[in-house]
Amino acid sequence: MNKAFKFRIYPNEEQKAKIEKTFNCVRFVYNKMLEDKLAYYNETGKMLRNTPAQYKTKFPWLKEVDSLALANAQMHLQAAYESFFRNPTSNLPRFKSKRRSKKTYTTNCVNRNIVIQDSAVRLPKIGFVKMRMHRSVPENYKLKSVTVMRNSRGYYYASILFEYEPEQKEIIPKSYINLEYSDTDLYVDSNGHRIIYPKYIQRTIKKLRREKKKLSHMKYKSHNREKQCIKVIEVRRKYYRQRDDFLHKQSRQIANAYDCVCVKEPDNGVSNDFGWSIFKFLLQYKLLEKGKMLISADDKMLYSVQAV
Description:
This protein is of the alpha+beta class and 308 residues long. Helix content is 39%, strand content 22%. The protein has 5 helices and 13 strands. Strands 2-6-7-1-5-4-3 form a 7-stranded antiparallel β-sheet. 18% of the residues are buried.
């Protein structure tokens, strides 16, 4: 199984410049390869097999960044392009915008070119970058890749992907609990407990609604609207962080306390709260790691949810 840990990193000014250059080179290679693919497809109706190495002679500054980051951009483009050929009704891949595209790139661990040591991560062509490790990584986890990203506020993060073998346990269920979705609560369990979002999350939700209402009354493309958009984004991010933290803690408590969990979906099959879907996903993999069972139930049938 694979598991990713997302940590905030603190590069210095020189490292920031190198990371930003990698973002730009990845976007450039993606757009350049897509441009050549589209031109070749319009001429021949076939798919062009091009690689980032073909462009390094004409654009030598591509050699200054991590080659694996460029290779991953090629893989992402190739996957999107092959998807179009498999399903011609879908649209062709789009060019990445310099302003609106996500600032991110992915590099793979080859010959220990990526190392985590003393609350720092060594990235290819970047060096050791200070990192805030808010949780420990088990020693038996094998590092696979790192995705470096920057959000709109200028904060840098590293999503580190690990591969591990879960312990194959055969636990005979001895403790059970039923969870049922509720429109007014997050869920109601078989013990009669109604789990709702804490007050601090509810306050954030109300604040988000107020800020979105202010945004809807502002003039399109005005300076005040741009400032309000940033404010809405920040409040929304705060809500996501609070919600995900709460759902992680709830799912961990249930996974530790019970051997078998039965989940009842809404009557119409659609929940009004997206947090319910996230909660089920978190609960599923936490139970799976412990060799426990998650059962989805409705009025007609019971079936075991397999791991993805």
